[in-house]
């Protein structure tokens, strides 16, 4: 090498260093940064990892990415980690569905990853804590997603430091709006994030954000999602002019107002959602711009113009939702391009007529006949329809064959219409959801549903005239419907034993099963391992209670013929929230171990059985979750256990019609939310003392102490403190006590000498029944403070003195019974001013003088006043003298003498004059058809009431 040795010594080190550098900087050999690996491991170790943590539908089958992280390996090879090919720095971290449980602290090692450009922490559980301000240190972030991660509190102002962000998705869990955003922070974010292309704040609380601040949105924005954010006020229409906007979601902001621009919409807008807003939608303006849209969601909106125009320019639409808009007439099928449309929801309208029969198709359109008048056999059309929702309309006729043969259909909703005939076999295998409920279908269930629809997850065939399960060939494979989660056959005409093949349906997946209101006689076993909801009510089931799996949360077997004792295995159902065994013939004693369930058990209903013995004190454990306890109609005896004080959430306590021998449980006065207390028909005795706490029974709305042996004076101080009965709340409307989809509070009240079942209890319904005891003394004036009272019954006691005029202050009173006491004096004229009073009984007292003359008093018959020998005036035949001519008694209705007037039973009469509107609604809800209610309302001259009740039944559904 001689003369070139000096060149070698100079150039070789330079060459070697360049070569080595090229190795490490090449895409195949990225640099390793041990500090970033360490930071990632620290972040992982600050959490526990549970791959079963919620979000099952989103993360189903997903393996948490951190399970692959190993300190001895290259972090760039770890799952969920992305590194720069040149620098080797960690630039991407996707821990969505990571099963992370814990808190992101302000000193988290996550904030040491300064080179991060993309971060996804969605679908984890961060324990409801706030987003740390330190997230603003990740100034290189371009994409940030934190969706359904159980974070709460205010979104920090430091988000405005993330000036490079192009995608920002922050979504609260479900509809709870745990995350909140202020106008100040929002303005700073919009001012600094000028490169933002996607902004999604679904379910983030923006109720205090001024909509005008949206005028500062980035002109780069392509997608804006502000659904269910509580936005209110007027939205500027400049949003529709953003030049690159493709997707705009503003739905479910019920107080958001605005109008659509007439011109200059963004030419790129393809998806628009204004559902459940107060936007004024001018249909002509909308249809002029529909050519740009492929997805339009206008559920429950305010339209101006003809609905027919909505269907006039829909050739490009892929997804269309016009549900719940009171659109009537026939569905304009010919205006819909079914070669392109994938999702169509027209439910909740007033569409009428029959579904058309598919007729033919060509290269651009599928044609229909207006009615199924021809039966042509043609090749299947090239459908791409995936979701079709026509529920809650007035559609009739049979279900046409083309609906059974759409190959791409995943959801079909035809519930709550008037379809008739048999159901047929589904030819496609793609169904995931099927709703045929509340129609007039008959025959047996189509076997193709159970043996071919392998993807079916939701099936509702309830409320039809279906007679049962078709016979199954014994050679038929039973490995079907392995994904079924929700199944309802309720309110049909199914008889006999639950078929054996049904036990193979959704063995591991089924969590909801409703077989109620049929004529089933036997269910041999419950094989579904993960079942949470089981409703077997109102059948003919007999024998021992079937054993549900440990996962059960709602177990309802009421109104059957079950026998035997309440089994001790119930005590092992630690997830149980509702136990409804009412109206059977169960006997024996209540197992003391049932107190083991008190942590989760919310409803305990074992009324109308043959249970005996004492109520175990252990039944009501510490920190009890019980909301309703109903033991009415058994043979229970002994004392009422004071352990009920552990039930601080208790709203309903009904132990009526037993043999409880105790004094008045005044100690219940401290339960903060108790609304219903029924002690009727027991052996309670002694006086009802005045309260000992400052705010006794502050929520109580129903108090029934009737048919016991209480004595002494009426508790004046108690009446002075029943705050819930003092003020009416018109905002409550048709709200019910314990109004849950899986259980409904129900009690019996006595009116006009009859015991009536309130299938649903309006929260505005209030009653006091102290009848059938030995109460004495005068009626306290303080009762007149209970202005929300609907029913007052203090009959068959030993009360004396005058009827206090203060009862005239009970402006909401509908039923008053003071009969069979020793009351004296005249009937106060003030009672005639109670406008809603529709049932009155003052009989068998010592009242004197003229019966008051007033609007309501004209409707009461002789029986309301019988046994008061010195009363006079109509409707009695006894005259009060010659100085005033009395109206003819023919003006008065003798409704008590014939409870079956004109063929309409006493229960229906109670809805009108007999009980008043509130009581009538509570009673009549379950027993009357809409047609019968309309007949009654017109019979009493109540066209307005007819319309009101029709609206009530529609809402109650």
Automatic annotation (TrEMBL):
Residues 33-84 form the Leucine-rich repeat-containing N-terminal plant-type domain. It comes from the Eukaryota. Coiled coil: none annotated. GO terms for cellular component: plasma membrane. Keywords: Cell membrane, Glycoprotein, Leucine-rich repeat, Membrane, Receptor, Repeat, Signal, Transmembrane, Transmembrane helix. The chain crosses the membrane at residues 904-928. InterPro entries: Leu-rich_rpt (IPR001611), Leu-rich_rpt_typical-subtyp (IPR003591), LRR_dom_sf (IPR032675), LRR_N_plant-typ (IPR013210), RLP23-like (IPR046956). Gene3D superfamilies: Ribonuclease Inhibitor (3.80.10.10). It is found in: Cell membrane. The keyword Methyltransferase does not apply. Belongs to the RLP family. PANTHER family: LEUCINE-RICH REPEAT RECEPTOR PROTEIN KINASE EMS1-LIKE-RELATED, LEUCINE-RICH REPEAT-CONTAINING N-TERMINAL PLANT-TYPE DOMAIN-CONTAINING PROTEIN. This is Leucine-rich repeat-containing N-terminal plant-type domain-containing protein. It comes from Rhamnella rubrinervis.
């Amino acid at each position: 090498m001689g003369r070139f040795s000096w060149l070698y010594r100079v150039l070789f080190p330079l060459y070697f260093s360049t070569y080595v550098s090229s190795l490490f900087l090449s895409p195949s050999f990225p640099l390793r940064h041990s500090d970033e690996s360490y930071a990632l491991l620290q972040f992982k170790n600050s959490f526990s990892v549970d791959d079963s943590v919620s979000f099952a539908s989103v993360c189903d089958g997903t393996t948490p990415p951190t399970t692959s992280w190993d300190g001895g390996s290259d972090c760039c090879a770890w799952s969920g980690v992305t590194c720069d090919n040149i620098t080797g720095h960690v630039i991407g971290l996707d821990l969505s569905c990571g099963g992370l449980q814990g808190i992101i602290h302000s000193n988290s090692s996550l904030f040491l990853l300064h080179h991060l450009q993309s971060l996804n922490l969605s679908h984890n559980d961060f324990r409801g804590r706030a987003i740390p301000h330190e997230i603003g240190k990740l100034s290189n972030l371009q994409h940030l997603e934190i969706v359904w991660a159980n974070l709460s509190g205010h979104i920090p102002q430091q988000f405005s430091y993330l000036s490079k962000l192009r995608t920002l998705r922050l979504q609260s869990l479900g509809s709870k709006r745990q995350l909140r955003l202020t106008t100040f922070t929002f303005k700073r974010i919009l001012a600094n994030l000028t490169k933002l292309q996607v902004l999604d704040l679904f379910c983030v609380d923006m109720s205090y954000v001024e909509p005008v601040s949206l005028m500062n949105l980035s002109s780069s924005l392509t997608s804006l999602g502000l659904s269910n954010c509580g936005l209110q006020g007027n939205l500027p229409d400049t949003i529709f002019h953003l030049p690159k906007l493709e997707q705009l979601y503003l739905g479910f902001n019920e107080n958001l107002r605005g109008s659509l621009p007439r011109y200059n919409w963004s030419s790129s807008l393809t998806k628009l959602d204004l559902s459940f807003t107060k936007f004024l939608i001018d249909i002509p303006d909308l249809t002029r711009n529909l050519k740009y849209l492929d997805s339009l969601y206008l559920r429950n909106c305010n339209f101006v113009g003809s609905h027919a125009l909505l269907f006039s320019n829909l050739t490009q639409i892929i997804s269309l939702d016009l549900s719940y808009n009171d659109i009537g007439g026939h569905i304009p099928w010919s205006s819909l391009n079914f070669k392109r449309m994938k999702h169509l929801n027209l439910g909740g309208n007033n569409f009428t007529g029959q579904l058309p029969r598919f007729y033919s198709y060509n290269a651009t359109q599928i044609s229909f006949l207006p009615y199924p008048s021809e039966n042509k056999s043609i090749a299947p059309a090239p459908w791409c329809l995936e979701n079709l929702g026509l529920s809650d309309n007035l559609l009739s006729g049979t279900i046409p064959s083309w609906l059974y043969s759409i190959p791409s259909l995943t959801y079909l909703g035809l519930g709550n219409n008037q379809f008739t005939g048999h159901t047929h076999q589904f030819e496609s295998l793609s169904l995931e959801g099927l709703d045929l409920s509340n129609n007039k279908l008959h025959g047996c269930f189509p076997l193709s549903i159970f043996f071919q629809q392998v993807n079916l997850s939701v099936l509702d065939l309830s409320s039809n005239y279906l007679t049962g399960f078709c016979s199954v060939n014994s050679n038929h494979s039973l490995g079907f419907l392995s994904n079924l989660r929700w199944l309802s056959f309720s309110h049909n005409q199914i008889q006999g034993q639950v078929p054996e093949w049904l036990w193979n349906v959704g063995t591991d997946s089924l969590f909801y099963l409703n077989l109620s209101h049929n004529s089933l006689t036997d269910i041999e076993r419950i094989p579904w391992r993960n079942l949470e909801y089981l409703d077997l009510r109102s059948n003919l089931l007999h024998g021992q209670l079937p054993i549900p799996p440990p996962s059960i949360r709602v177990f309802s077997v009421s109104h059957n013929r079950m026998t035997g004792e309440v089994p001790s295995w119930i005590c092992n159902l630690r997830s149980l929230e509702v136990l409804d065994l009412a109206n059977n013939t169960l006997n024996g004693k209540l197992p003391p171990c049932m107190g083991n369930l008190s942590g989760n058990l919310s409803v305990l209903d074992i009324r109308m059985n043959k249970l005996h013995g004492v109520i175990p004190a252990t039944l009501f454990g510490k920190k009890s979750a019980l909301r309703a306890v109903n033991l009415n109609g058994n043979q229970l005896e002994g004392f009422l256990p004071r352990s009920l004080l552990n039930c601080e959430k208790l709203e309903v306590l009904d132990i009526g019609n037993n043999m409880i021998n105790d004094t008045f449980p005044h100690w219940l006065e401290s339960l903060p939310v108790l609304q219903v207390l029924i002690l009727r028909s027991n052996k309670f005795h002694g006086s009802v003392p005045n309260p000992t706490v400052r705010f006794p029974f502050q929520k109580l709305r129903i108090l029934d102490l009737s048919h016991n042996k209480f004595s002494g004076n009426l508790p004046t101080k108690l009446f002075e403190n029943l705050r819930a009965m003092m003020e009416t709340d018109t905002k409550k409307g048709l709200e019910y006590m314990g109004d849950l989809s899986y259980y409904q509070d129900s009690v019996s009240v006595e009116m006009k000498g009859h015991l009536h079942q309130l299938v649903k209890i309006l929260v505005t319904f209030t009653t006091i029944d102290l009848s059938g005891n030995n109460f004495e003394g005068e009626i306290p004036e303080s009762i007149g403070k209970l202005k929300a009272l609907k029913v007052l019954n203090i009959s068959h006691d030993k009360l004396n003195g005058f009827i206090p005029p203060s009862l005239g202050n009970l402006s909401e009173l509908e039923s008053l019974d003071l009969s069979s006491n020793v009351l004296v004096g005249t009937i106060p004229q003030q009672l005639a001013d109670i406008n809603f009073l529709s049932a009155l009984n003052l009989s068998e007292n010592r009242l004197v003088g003229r019966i008051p003359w007033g609007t309501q008093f004209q409707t009461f018959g002789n029986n309301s006043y019988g046994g008061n020998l010195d009363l006079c005036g109509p409707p009695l035949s006894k005259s009060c003298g010659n100085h005033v001519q009395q109206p003819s008694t023919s003006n008065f209705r003798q409704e008590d003498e014939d409870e079956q007037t004109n063929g309409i039973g006493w229960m229906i009469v109670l809805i009108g004059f007999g009980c008043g509107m509130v009581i009538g609604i509570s009673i009549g809800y379950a027993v009357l058809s809409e047609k019968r209610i309309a007949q009654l309302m017109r019979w009493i001259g109540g066209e307005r009431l007819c319309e009101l009740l029709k609206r009530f039944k529609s809402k109650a559904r």
